Amino acid sequence: MLKLLRMEYLVNRKQMLIILAIFSGYFAFMAYRIGSPRVFLVTMSLMIGLALPFGIIGREDRFKTASLVCSLPLRRTTIVLAKYVAGWIAMGFGLAYALLLAAWLPFSRFSVTEILTLKSILISLFLLSLLFGFIFPFTIRFGLMGIIIFLVSSQLLGVVALILAQLLGRSPNPLRTVMTSIEKGLRAMLHHEATPDFLMLVAAAIMAMNAVSFFLSRTLYARRDL
Amino acid sequence: MEYALEVQNLRKEYPGFTLNDISFALPRGYIMGLIGPNGAGKTTIIKLILNIVRRNSGEVRICGFNSLAEEAEAKARVGFVLDEPPFYGYLKALGMASVIAPFYKNWDRDLFHRLCREFDLPPRKRVSAFSRGMAMKLALAMALSHGAELILMDEPTSGLDPVFRRELLERLSSLLQDGRTSVLFSTHITSDLERVADYITCVRDGELVFSTTRDEVLESWAIVKGGAEILTGVTRDLFKAIIRGPYGFTALTADKEETRRRLAGRGAVIERLKLDDLIFFLGQKNKGTTGGRT
Questions:
Q1: Angle value at C-alpha A56, between A53 and A62, nearest 5 degrees
Q2: pLDDT-based confidence at residue B291 (cuts at 50, 70, 90)
Q3: The whole model's pTM is what?
Q4: Chain B residue closest in CA terms to A221
Q5: What is the ipTM, given to two decimal places?
Q6: Chain A partners within 8 Å of B104 (Cβ)
Q7: What gap in Å lies between CA B171 and CA A180, rounded to an integer?
Q8: Which residues of B touch A80 (CB under 8 A)?
Q9: Cβ neighbours of residue B129 under 8 Å, at least 6 residues apart?
Q10: What is the edge-to-edge ordering of all strands in the sheet holding B222-226?
């Protein structure tokens, strides 16, 4: 596994440095423009969750090297685990970097106590887990096409939601109900007091999401023909 | 006998194609050629051995290790050259080696460097800028640099110039001198097989046609030519494939002696088989242009 992580580092380091350079500018701009730490947390998590890990997961697809990796003396479970861990290392590093940047930049609109709290870190990890845990199995099974399928499906779902909203008028629209529920849930989470129970619950949710996502990915990758 | 590779009842189903019940064994210290027309399933067999493609059923043992239950142990003994060598194009040859090397206990850095020099691989050029032949050479250098006991190669000589092709075949032959290294390679270039292969496994339409020694193939199989009047219901059963022409037929038989005996005195000519003929006939059958039987 350590050998695979070393390999991930060797083949991804340049790409990661480029992303880091772009993120530095982007997060500095966000810290300067966005006044709400909650909005910053959500936007930053989305950016990190989408940009950092999928370079690592999608690389085998881009260079068609999955057959090389799977021909090495390794089990597929180890390959999936290494990719999962590498994705989290990249996201963890990105998260720490973004939070530190936002906390200490002289022109940032957030204070250290506002942005570097256990709650903000856990909520960021929760959002990253949600995104990563949901898209990772797609990508590990269907490669970059998986991400494209996911994004296109989301777009189509949005279009269907808009059409339904037009057609149904004031009557209950199931898609809108789902979206509103997600929004309400997120809002409630962001505004919830940082009690020990709440923090434990978020931490448990993070672990559960990652466990499910990993085991699903492992099962899917075991069946993949390259 | 000790085997480097044992394949038993291997089966893989794809929509529109099934690799069915493939069994063969390669003893240690020998070269086996895997032949068959395009789409016969050669690449699938190699991918199944490497677990790049998941089998529906069957078993593969590499140097005695089960390739699924003992995957890491089995693959540590395999060097591979795939049809389209999968490399990170933005790395250089030495960079690729440094990525792969830690996975093999017996990686010989000096040997890899020496092979790169012998193969004229440019150290400062990105792999993406390599020609197909150069990429094949790099894959080969990597496969040979960790003391593999079984080398699997999918069309390794395609894209190589004749000089290097001959060098490669000589190198493969010399690998066997230690008595523990074995090679399985698929190819369309049958002259390569005639030069170095000890065993030949032939597949067509996902089915095993035969797996035996090269000498036995060349002794038992033959090309038969004769007039159309010879082709009766009884004689047709002698042939694996038949091509009819305006003045007679040309056919492939797997039993030269039996054919000679049964067609004696009927004007048929029995010629020595070349492996090229074998692939040609099996390929023709594949296209459905003959009235042959299997």
A1: 125
A2: very low
A3: 0.81
A4: B54
A5: 0.76
A6: 73
A7: 68
A8: none
A9: none
A10: B239-245, B248-253, B222-226, B269-272
